[in-house]
């Protein structure tokens, strides 16, 4: 049964990070806001140990979202929305009934959803979202998709102890990243023991009783696998019939101000074509859109150039600005590149097979060597990148980088000898340690996960080594 049509200034479709940020900012500017979300709320998990912890964290986040909506007096509904006019949607409510809403402005912030390949037996596969429903760690798993979702998922499952088989269509991982990153992460995943099948594509999946069997375009081990995870590109909502322009990947086409092809309808986040499927980007874009629509800031918009992005691979990856090929295509012979590869001091006391690589590349242009790209692989890359993001946005040069010398306590010099920890079994002979880490300001508790095949005896030997004196050392890039 349909209720009376509600009216508002701003209708937000999708209560994710970007939608909530935009809706709350609009409400603070005095707009009447209504939000619609198709999910039914926080999912329920029962995976023992960290699954319980993760569930509590997800529940807490959902509670924060709900409280923020209520605090800013944003009316919200749970249901699936569809356009019935250029300024009106109809919501099929999860608890029954239909609600119509008319708005002066409508924001589409519904995000992306993982998709499964169109192959026989696809119902036997799970997407990256399905990982959260696993009741136990798979003993053997096949993954597909060379993008950041596939790289993160495969690296994590391998580190947890699953026998991992990784199928990719090309010959390298992360093909949209700088070639140095592609080469380094592909080589490292193979070195770690991940079974990487290049130039392959899964064509069929079937249940053979004791697990899953798959067929592919290359002759390799067919199974059985406990699970098969398809880590493919996210798909977006089906809105073609309404007339909003989409690109060839079904993303909503937007201009610099998040406008779609239809007046007073906007899009942010994974659903639009801006190329950054990142939560902070959606939040920033949503807030600036509300500032423009309701905050008397007609020029407010998010500038998408030089946005840092990271991949939580093993090891981590950070990237900002132009890749080397992009820079050479745009600036030709003006491009100059600096790069280095080494093994960080963090791994100094480990055997060679447990040492992860570190690689840095700076892409510069012109006589002043303005930095237009920075690409790093190695421990803590996600944290390291943040400060460089500000520098590159402000037009820093290679000389600026060289002149930035920091004198500080370097925790990597004395981290291992100072760990005093209790070991617990982490499967496959692996161990986890909780200890203290020296930083500039304080000793901060942290959790370190070592590769599953590092023996407890080897690490105990390291821990019993007398602590070394804390060292101070100048540090500069390149």
Automatic annotation (TrEMBL):
Domain of life of the source: Eukaryota
Molecular function as annotated in GO: flavin adenine dinucleotide binding; glutathione-disulfide reductase (NADPH) activity
Any single Gene Ontology cellular-component annotation: cytosol
Residues in FAD/NAD(P)-binding domain copies: 9-286
Binding-site residues for NAD(+), renumbered to this chain: 145-152
Binding site for FAD: 270
Gene Ontology biological process terms from the UniProt entry: cell redox homeostasis; cellular response to oxidative stress; glutathione metabolic process
Domain called Pyridine nucleotide-disulphide oxidoreductase dimerisation: residue spans: 307-405
Family annotation (InterPro entries): FAD/NAD-bd_sf, FAD/NAD-binding_dom, FAD/NAD-linked_Rdtase_dimer_sf, GSHR/TRXR-like, Pyr_nuc-diS_OxRdtase, Pyr_nucl-diS_OxRdtase_dimer
Signal peptide: none
Cofactor(s) named in the record: FAD
Co-factor: note: Binds 1 FAD per subunit.
Keyword tags: Disulfide bond, FAD, Flavoprotein, NAD, Nucleotide-binding, Oxidoreductase, Redox-active center
PANTHER family tied to this protein: GLUTATHIONE REDUCTASE
Homology family: Belongs to the class-I pyridine nucleotide-disulfide oxidoreductase family.
Protein's UniProt name: Uncharacterized protein
Organism: Phaeosphaeria nodorum (strain SN15 / ATCC MYA-4574 / FGSC 10173) (Glume blotch fungus)
């Amino acid at each position: 049964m349909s209720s009376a049509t509600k009216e508002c200034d701003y209708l937000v479709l999708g209560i994710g990070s970007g939608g909530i940020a935009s809706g709350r900012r609009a409400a603070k500017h005095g707009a009447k806001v209504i939000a619609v979300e198709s999910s039914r709320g926080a999912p329920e998990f029962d995976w023992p140990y960290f699954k319980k912890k993760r569930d509590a964290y997800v529940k807490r986040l959902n509670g924060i979202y709900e409280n923020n909506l209520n605090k800013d007096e944003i009316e919200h509904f749970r249901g699936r929305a569809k356009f019935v006019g250029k300024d009106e949607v109809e919501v099929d409510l999860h608890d029954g009934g239909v609600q119509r809403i008319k708005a002066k402005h409508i924001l589409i912030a519904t995000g992306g959803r993982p998709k499964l390949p169109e192959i026989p037996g696809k119902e036997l596969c799970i997407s990256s979202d399905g990982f959260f429903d696993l009741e136990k760690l798979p003993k053997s798993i096949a993954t597909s998709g060379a993008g950041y979702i596939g790289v993160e998922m495969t690296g994590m499952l391998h580190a947890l102890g699953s026998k991992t088989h990784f199928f990719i269509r090309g010959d390298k991982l992360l093909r949209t990243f700088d070639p140095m990153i592609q080469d380094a992460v592909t080589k490292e995943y193979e070195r770690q023991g991940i079974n990487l099948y290049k130039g392959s594509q899964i064509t069929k999946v079937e249940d053979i009783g004791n697990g899953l069997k798959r067929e592919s375009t290359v002759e390799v081990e067919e199974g059985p696998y406990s699970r098969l995870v398809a880590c493919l590109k996210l798909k977006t909502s089906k809105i073609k019939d309404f007339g909003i322009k989409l690109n060839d990947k079904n993303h909503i086409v937007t201009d610099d101000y998040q406008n779609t092809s239809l007046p007073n309808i906007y899009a942010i986040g994974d659903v639009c074509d801006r190329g950054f499927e990142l939560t902070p980007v959606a939040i920033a874009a949503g807030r600036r859109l509300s500032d423009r629509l309701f905050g008397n800031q007609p020029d407010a918009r998010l500038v998408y150039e030089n946005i840092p992005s990271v991949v939580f691979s093993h090891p981590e990856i950070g990237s900002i600005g132009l890749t080397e090929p992009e820079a050479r295509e745009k600036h030709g012979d003006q491009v100059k590149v600096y790069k280095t590869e080494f093994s960080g001091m963090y791994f100094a006391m480990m055997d060679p097979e447990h040492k992860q690589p570190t690689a840095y590349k700076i892409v510069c242009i012109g006589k002043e060597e303005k930095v237009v790209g920075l690409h790093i692989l190695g421990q803590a890359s996600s944290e390291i990148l943040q400060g460089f993001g500000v520098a590159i946005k402000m037009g820093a040069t290679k000389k600026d980088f060289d002149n930035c010398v920091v004198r500080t306590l370097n925790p990597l010099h004395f981290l291992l000898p100072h760990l005093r920890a209790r070991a617990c079994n982490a499967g496959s002979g692996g161990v986890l340690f909780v200890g203290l880490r020296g930083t500039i300001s304080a000793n901060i508790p942290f959790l370190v996960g070592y590769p599953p095949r590092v023996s407890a005896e080897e690490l105990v030997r390291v821990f019993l080594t007398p602590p070394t004196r804390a060292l101070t050392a100048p540090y500069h890039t390149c």
